[in-house]
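call fold(seq) -> tokens
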Amino acid sequence: MTVDLASRVATDAEGDAHPGDARTGDMRAAATRTGGVRTGGAGIRATARVEARADGRGGVALPVLDGEGPLALRRTRSTGPTARVTLVGAMSGPLGGDHLTVKAAAHEGAALHIDSAAATIALPGQTETAAHYDVRLTVADGAELRWLPEQLISVRGSDLRVTTRAEVAAGARLVLREEQVLGRTGEEPGRLTSRLAVRRADRLLLDQELACGPGAPGGWDGPAVLSGHRAVGQLVVVRPEFEQSPPQPELLGEWAALTPLAGPGVLVTAVAPDALLVRRVLDEAVRRLS
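ret:
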């Protein structure tokens, strides 16, 4: 997978392009215009928030839809009684020293689908401090939340710590997909640590961590983990219906496996030579499970 970074520019709150503010040199000025907060002069701190509520007319309202810095949220066209929101990168990142957070909540009776306009690219910054990207998802009884962003690409020299936490009520539904690509085409990866935790009805359903790249614990590229492959993905599906008829463990072709969790949820893990294969198997699993 290749990405043209040179064409990416920062935008201000009015949407005007500022090529000179691309995140080298005067990138902090761009961050300030879009609402990002400087953190010790080395990185930016930015948060995007979205809340979905049933509007009482068969639709979904978004009383909170707010972004800062590199994180912009846009309501996009959807079909049926589901609100769809797209996460748009307003500038390149995360870079070293940045701390980005996305908070999404689907309240009782609401259905919320969140995707992204493009892959997220972890880049080295002007500091050796790791970048942090936190995702916080909350799903109330009778609500459904789908978190389906594009891939995260770990570029050589970058250091990113990703933490995704989901709090799911007993009567809620969750579809959560995350995909990681280690390096661009022909490139060694950066350091990537990704933790995924899901709680249902205040009980832990899943808590796992994957660390890859330079400085990661030994064995991450061996046969017990990635076995030399450079694309990995996780899919978590939580549905109350699984309490009565839970899916059974199985291999999903050559690249993935389905594992039931200790509750009404399943984890699908995919490891493959490239991102396209991972996406295909996870898309098929989403269709089967939800």
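The longest strand covers residues 43-54.
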